[in-house]
Specification:
Blueprint: E1 8-10, E2 13-15, E3 19-21, H1 37-48, E4 53-60, H2 80-92, E5 96-102, H3 110-113, E6 118-119, E7 133-134, H4 137-156, E8 161-166, H5 171-176, H6 191-209, E9 215-222, H7 231-244, E10 248-253, H8 274-283, E11 288-290, H9 297-305, E12 311-313, H10 316-320, H11 324-329, H12 344-352, E13 379-383, H13 387-398, E14 402-406, H14 416-419, H15 428-441, E15 445-447, H16 454-460, E16 464-467, E17 471-473, E18 486-488, H17 489-494, E19 502-506, H18 510-521, E20 525-529, H19 541-553, E21 557-559, E22 563-568, E23 571-575, E24 581-585, E25 588-591, E26 595-597, H20 600-605, E27 611-614, H21 624-637
Parallel strand pairs: 3-4, 3-12, 4-5, 5-8, 6-7, 8-9, 9-10, 10-11, 11-12, 13-14, 13-16, 14-15, 16-27, 18-25, 19-20, 19-25, 20-21
Antiparallel strand pairs: 1-2, 17-26, 22-23, 23-24
Helix pairs in contact: 1-2, 4-6, 6-7, 7-8, 13-15, 13-21, 18-19
């Protein structure tokens, strides 16, 4: 870790190490753009964990530039006071406060901004769609001034570095790329014209804040679309911007069509954007920040040691564990709560309007979810060593309770054990390791290979029983379900490789699609049957996109509006939405339609009169995130 924790200087700013938290939307902002106590605490916690610099999430420079009502804004002096509280909190914890300025351009909705979105050209956002208003030259110059004013306010608020968001399909990126800029005036055409907007913004900022404050530029070096930016073209753009006054570059990727390169799911390689950063570092004479699935301190140290970048951006990793830098510095690697790239943080923002994390239930709730010692220690019996059971066990023990946790298998982890069998989901094991280590550190009494009975409960005589006994695979009531051809998803994941040619997966939800990809990667010919009109219902959007692209590569057949009718010895009979039957040949049929609660132990001990809580799947089928969150809440109130 010597290189990762060596100091570095950007212009006149000394960074104590090479770790930077890049701007990540927190959705902890008031609807009026106000900074709340939760916002300040969110940033304070991350700064206290040991990174050198914290970049505040993208602040809109103009009202029509916001992408969400929960986005921070910086287009009026009245916002300086709130923003200054964040800068002060970051600095008080020993990190350099930085701020990113931003305009969404076409990548917002008229529902959010109550007018047509602005864009360089009459091309709507491919994802959001809807009419846009192409910017006039006067409109462009007006926005250049807005960026400059925003940077000056950030400086007045106490932020010591300003970053221009020139990536991810937002307005500055839209001007840079031929994918979104088809202008024929001085702000379009060749690379000089397409860079003019960014160049003028940089110059306006430099004019307003002077020569001492560093300016960073975030670029999507590769957009991964036809006509989009490439690393070679990005190098030429950055040369122009260096001459205009930028001091630092953050090398990202992707745009509104390729979001998987913006917030990479677990299917994508760790540090997957470092090659672009390295190429840019070799070509330019300014510091380079690498970003993109850098969730492991050892990987981060390797990047610096191999001189592929000067700084590493760890974003989701610090959402999952704000103390990652301090733990890595002191060699406590087994205590790091690693980001598993499940993209729950992104999904929760879009679906719930707040940020959440599968592995860290405290995210966004740092104050209300504090672990406070109990005044009334109890004997707690936890039955089930899955993610929910382990979490409630170690948190309750940390609070001062005496905790016994029982697991019928030889290892902890519950459904995460078979769930981590596919190679792309192997990182789930890091969560098991973290929770097991926390149980050890907090002196939880662990009992493996022990299936609890009612007599065991009576023998321990606990004050509280927490049942985390999980679920059983749901089995559809169809003719032939008992045949040897039928397997459950657990049978497949617990049984290793499936040396078969033709497999039918019944269920096109998250489990079914992940299972289908796992078997396709091993050479199986896959057909997925789903009753609903759409495949992948409820899945996180970016993860779903990547899985479907991979299944297409393997020529998997995805049949929607299709119901399993009957299972025969050599295949299945299905019925489509027109009520037409069809026989599909297969060697195996894998059932992945969901789960049902395992309440067998609850039914036996309920009459005994103990205080009983149920969490996770044994209460109702739910995700690992829900089980961990429910257990975290319960552990704090026992």
């Amino acid at each position: 870790m010597e290189k990762l924790f060596s100091p570095f200087t950007v212009k006149n700013i000394r960074l104590k190490n090479r770790i930077v938290m890049p701007p990540l939307a927190s959705f902890l902002i008031g609807n009026d753009g106000s900074i709340t106590g939760a916002t300040i605490e969110h940033y304070r916690r991350r700064a206290a964990g040991g990174p050198a610099m914290i970049m505040m999430e993208a602040c809109a420079v103009s009202p029509e530039g916001i992408v969400s009502p929960h986005q921070p804004v910086i287009y009026d002096d009245c916002y300086i006071e709130g923003l200054s509280k964040i800068a002060a909190a970051i600095k008080a914890e020993g990190a350099v406060p930085a701020l990113q300025i931003h305009h969404g351009g076409r990548q917002t909705s008229a529902k959010v901004i109550h007018r047509k979105p602005l864009a360089p050209s009459p091309l709507p956002c491919p994802f959001i769609q809807g009419d846009v208003e192409p910017l006039t030259v006067d409109g462009i110059r007006h926005l250049v001034k807005k960026f400059g004013d925003a940077a000056a306010r950030a400086h007045m608020a106490g932020f010591e570095l300003i970053e221009i968001h020139g990536a991810h399909g937002y307005l500055v990126n839209q001007f840079l790329s031929r994918f979104s800029n088809i202008r024929e005036d001085e702000y379009g055409g060749d690379i000089v014209g397409r860079t003019r907007f960014a160049r003028e913004i940089t110059g306006e900022i430099r004019k307003g804040i002077g020569d001492e404050i560093p300016i960073s530029f975030k670029i999507s070096a590769e957009e991964y679309v036809d006509g989009g930016l490439t690393t070679n073209e990005s190098i030429e753009i950055l040369k122009i911007l260096i001459n205009a006054g930028i001091d630092l570059v953050q090398v990202s990727a992707g745009n509104d069509v390729t979001p998987e390169w913006i917030c990479q799911p677990m299917f994508m390689e760790k540090a997957c954007l470092v090659a672009s950063a390295h190429q840019i570092k070799k070509a330019l004479d300014i510091p380079v920040m690498a970003v993109g699935r850098i969730n492991d301190p050892q990987i981060a140290d390797d990047i610096i040691r191999q001189e592929k970048a000067d700084l590493v951006c760890i974003g989701r990793g610090l959402l999952a564990d704000p103390e990652m830098p301090l733990k890595a510095m002191s060699g406590r690697f087994d205590e790091i709560r690693t980001c598993i790239a499940c993209n729950t943080c992104m999904q929760s923002i879009f679906r719930k309007g707040r940020i959440e994390c599968l592995v860290n239930p405290m995210l966004g709730r740092e104050e209300e979810m504090a672990i406070i010692p109990t005044k009334h220690p109890k004997k707690v019996m936890v039955v089930g060593g899955g993610p929910g059971g382990l979490n409630v066990a170690w948190v309750a023990a940390k609070r001062g309770h005496t905790v016994h946790v029982y697991e019928k298998r030889s290892v902890f982890g519950g459904q995460l054990v078979p769930g981590s069998t596919p190679g792309h989901k192997a990182e789930l094991r890091s969560l098991i390791r973290f929770q097991t280590r926390q149980a050890e550190l907090n002196k939880v009494k662990c009992h493996l290979n022990h299936e609890v009975t009612a007599k065991d409960v009576q023998a321990l005589d606990p004050d509280v029983v927490v049942l985390a006994t999980g679920s059983l695979p749901a089995i559809p009531p169809v003719q032939g379900i008992e045949k040897q051809i039928v397997l459950t998803y657990e049978d497949v994941l617990n049984g290793g490789k499936i040396p078969l040619r033709r497999v039918i997966v019944v269920g096109g939800g998250a489990t079914g699609l992940e299972l289908a990809l796992y078997m396709a990667e091993q050479g199986c010919s896959i057909t997925v049957i789903e009753m609903l009109p759409k495949i992948g219902s409820g899945m996180e959007a970016v993860t779903k996109k990547v899985i479907l692209e991979q299944l297409k590569k393997y020529n998997a057949a995805l049949l929607t509006d299709t119901r399993l009718s009957k299972i025969e010895d050599s295949g299945v009979v299905v019925v489509n939405q027109d009520n037409r039957e069809k026989f599909i040949e297969a060697e195996k049929v894998v059932i992945a339609i969901g789960t049902k609660p395992d309440t067998r132990l609850y039914d036996k001990i309920k009459p005994l009169g103990y205080k009983i809580y149920q969490i996770g799947d044994c209460l109702e089928p739910r995700s690992a995130k829900d089980a961990i969150f429910d257990s975290a809440v319960l552990a704090r109130k026992i």
